[in-house]
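User: Show me a protein chain along with its predicted structure.
Assistant: Here is one chain, sequence first, then structure tokens.
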Amino acid sequence: MSREALTTIVSRAITDTAYRAKLLSDPEAALKDYDLSDKEQKMILSLNSDTFDEMTMDLEARQSKSGFLGSFSLMGGKDSVDMDSVLNLMMNKYGGDS
């Protein structure tokens, strides 16, 4: 499983509304630069706009509980999102079992 590719795609979709729109409307084009297995691609394609909104809220709640307000910002771009939190949330909550 390409942990880095999955977290990059999801964190980018959470923080970049233009990329999220492209992923939802033209997933083939949005995913063309990523090396994903069929299972990984199916998992990403199963996510919808509501799921990304829910993930954003979940990540913001985790940020708030952690007390690290300056170190984790969804508005700061994909590099500001904690990649492990994104992947763990996706895997545990949205069906990314191995």
